[in-house]
Amino acid sequence: MPHRQLLLPVAADAKLWFEAHRMARILRSIYRRSALEGDYKVIKKAYAALTALVCLLFASGTYADQPMPWQATLQPAATPIMREIHWFEQYTLWFIVPITLFVLVLLLVVCFKFRASANPVPSKTSHNTIIEVIWTVGPVLVLLFLAIPSFTLLTAQLTLPENPDVTIKATATQWQWNYEYEGSGENPVAFDSYLLKEPDRAAAGKTDLAVYPRLLAVDNELVLPVNKTVRVLVTAAPTDVIHAFAMPSFGVKIDAVPGRLNETWFRAEREGLFYGQCSELCGKDHAFMPIAIRVVSEDKYKQWLTTAASDLPGAYKTLIAAADGSAKTVDVAENVAK
Ligand SMILES: [Cu+2]
Hints:
Elements: H1 2-37, H2 40-57, H3 80-113, H4 129-158, E1 166-173, E2 176-181, E3 190-193, H5 201-204, E4 222-225, E5 230-236, E6 243-247, E7 252-256, E8 262-266, E9 272-277, E10 290-296, H6 298-308, H7 312-324, H8 327-337
Parallel strand pairs: 1-5, 4-10
Antiparallel strand pairs: 1-2, 2-3, 5-8, 6-7, 9-10
């Protein structure tokens, strides 16, 4: 039932909210009792309930690398470049936070100490050489400390390693991605990757919303091997508009421009299902052309590539059954498809 599938995430959220609410009610009653009786055991129970509440709020089952509700930080890194980006983010915060606090303190000092009522005769000071040298040289030094690692990282992102193991071309079109594998035999593997439509979930064996989230899951994922250098050629169809190929956990974001061939690379260090999105405002369905990359072991990748050349749906079925460990889902899907 399509409407039932659409209501699943709402139901899951409502259940979590209900559980959290119930736990808060228990906590409140325990607190009231402990205030009256001062019983050590009751306080211990309160701690246990609080721990359960925290666990519940942060509970997560199996999920792919994707944005999470209330996420405030970057996605976990899956490539060396993304690890560097994590480091660089922390590094810049060591500059940004003290500077922001320092400016805030200065503003407060100005507001209170130098207010008009406390200074009936205003100072006529207009120059102070030492202060002017400090506020010129200081920011220059800060910018240098930020620029050097920043440019180093940018260079690493855009310098392609020699002899990549796999080369793929990603072409964006309004509104889907087309992927081509270079040098994959007489019948090069090439296919379109569309947003997975809700009514197609069961037939595709992708009913688990945690692994195949709404608006991020696709029909055909880009399948790539783990621990291999992948070169990605990115472009948009000649008559199309500018799109962008972005994969947050890989630290990859590059424009797909009609008539131009951009290059980027990554080396995924762990297997999994990774989600990204077109990141250039490209038109009315900009939000509906996600990117999904399935990183698998080299053996599985080779097996998939060989089968995909002649039987793409069959290749995915085998791969998904192996990855999700539930051949049953795929059997059911096959029956539904028939
Ligand atoms: Cu786009």
